[in-house]
Design the sequence.
């Protein structure tokens, strides 16, 4: 018990003094997580809406695959991206392995299916309600796509947050492709993992606290923004 | 009430001709070989009890669903090409999550109306349906009656040659029903052909110039409103007028 209190005290000190290593790790984590979620949204929102709106051969199979990919094991994604980016791999020439870019690539692969699947569900439900009216006004599926993404904006915020949640919590993939290199690819989750195994509980706990607080803060602010926007312009 | 500048007259899309239109859903016959010609001009009300196939008939005319058999033709043309200038108002108004004015501008945008025009036309459309005061209100916050008037404004602003209305007052109270009927008459006066479904005899008396009585997916009477109410020819029409035709 004494150890935990000591660790908590150290954690509080690290946070209060804005320890330089700690800040660096937090900033890199934010950069990697937000970049990957932004890219995954750019891919997943239109892709999910397309799966909902267009009929094509293999659509059902595509939907099943996307849903299944929501549960991709991060270490496997890490391994595959590692193989693709390693010197011997097809994209080895770009020298991306053990860089933040590699971590973003891995996380985009993990997050995109989540955003795609949730968007597909949301837009499909909306299309059920709006289909006749929009077609009557002259909007086919292509024109309905941006309309329905906008109509579903409040629900879709949740889809993006779910993606952000996965990116924030994820450790396996970024560990493999980033390598957890100090001052280069060390993010919160990988640091917590490393420091815990080294027995350095204070730093691990400090980061753990920040990670949880940030996660709550991001979600809370998203909900506050969502509610205030909904309030002013449903 | 400012009138919109009318577009240059084009070749009329009417009459609308249905020949042998059959529609089956889940092994149930909704429409069984409907043949019908609807001319330009008088307001047409498609009457019939619930489940007679009125909504399906209207959706087929509007091009939202395709019949398994039979043809829908405009202006006696050989092709089934759907003319652009038609609109439809549904029983339950479907509103986009944006302001009343923005709902109208959205429809104008779909019809490639330039941005500046969209704003002006939306104002006119709201004014002539009595919705100017709620122009900036989110459409979802409007009462059902106001939403239905907005749906009418949104359809009217497109200056359709034909306007389909599927039981537009079925979910409304008497005051809203009256407001909606007034707007329907105004749209008629502006030169748009009205084709509307109803199960309400009193409403048909108020609106119809022509009555098409649909029963179990068949047209059993197609005549002027005066003839229909004074001297109906079919047994079904007499039963319907007596309130005895339930299904």
Sequence:
């Amino acid at each position: 018990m004494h150890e935990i209190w000591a660790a908590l005290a150290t954690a509080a000190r690290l946070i209060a003094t804005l320890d330089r290593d700690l800040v660096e790790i937090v900033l890199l984590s934010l950069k990697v997580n937000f970049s990957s979620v932004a890219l995954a949204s750019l891919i997943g929102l239109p892709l999910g809406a397309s799966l909902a709106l267009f009929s094509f051969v293999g659509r059902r199979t595509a939907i099943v695959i996307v849903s299944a990919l929501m549960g991709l094991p991060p270490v496997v994604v890490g391994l595959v991206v590692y193989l693709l980016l390693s010197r011997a791999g097809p994209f080895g020439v770009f020298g991306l392995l053990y860089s933040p870019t590699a971590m973003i690539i891995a996380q985009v692969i993990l997050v995109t299916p989540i955003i795609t699947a949730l968007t597909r569900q949301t837009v499909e439900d909306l299309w059920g309600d709006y289909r006749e009216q929009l077609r009557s006004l002259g909007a086919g599926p292509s024109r309905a796509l941006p309309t329905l993404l906008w109509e579903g904006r409040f629900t879709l915020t949740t889809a993006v947050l779910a993606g952000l949640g996965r990116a924030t919590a994820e450790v396996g993939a970024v560990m493999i492709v980033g390598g957890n290199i100090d001052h280069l690819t060390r993010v919160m989750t990988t640091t917590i993992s490393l420091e815990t195994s080294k027995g350095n509980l204070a730093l691990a706990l400090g980061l753990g606290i920040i990670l949880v607080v940030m996660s709550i803060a991001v979600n809370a602010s998203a909900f506050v923004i969502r509610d205030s926007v909904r309030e002013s312009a449903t | 009430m400012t009138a919109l500048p009318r577009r240059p007259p084009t070749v009329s899309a009417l009459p609308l001709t249905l020949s042998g239109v059959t529609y089956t859903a889940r092994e149930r016959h909704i429409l069984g070989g409907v043949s019908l010609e609807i001319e330009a001009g008088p307001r047409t009300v498609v009457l019939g009890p619930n489940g007679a196939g009125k909504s399906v008939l209207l959706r087929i005319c509007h091009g939202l669903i395709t019949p398994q058999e039979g043809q829908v033709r405009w202006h006696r043309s050989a092709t089934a090409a759907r003319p652009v200038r038609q609109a439809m108002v549904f029983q339950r108004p479907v509103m986009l999550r944006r302001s009343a004015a923005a709902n109208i501008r959205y429809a104008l945008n779909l019809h490639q109306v330039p941005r500046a025009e969209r704003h002006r036309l939306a104002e006119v459309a709201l004014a002539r349906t009595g919705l100017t005061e709620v122009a900036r209100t989110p459409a979802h916050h409007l009462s059902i009656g106001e939403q239905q008037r907005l749906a009418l404004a949104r359809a009217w602003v497109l200056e359709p040659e034909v306007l389909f209305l599927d039981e537009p007052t079925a979910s409304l109270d008497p005051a809203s029903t009256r407001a909606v009927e007034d707007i329907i008459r105004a749209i008629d006066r502006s030169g748009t052909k009205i084709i509307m479904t109803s199960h309400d005899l009193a409403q048909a008396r108020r609106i119809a110039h022509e009555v098409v009585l649909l029963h179990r997916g068949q047209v059993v009477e197609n005549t002027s409103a005066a003839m229909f109410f004074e001297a109906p020819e079919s047994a079904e029409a007499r039963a319907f007028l007596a309130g005895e035709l339930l299904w």
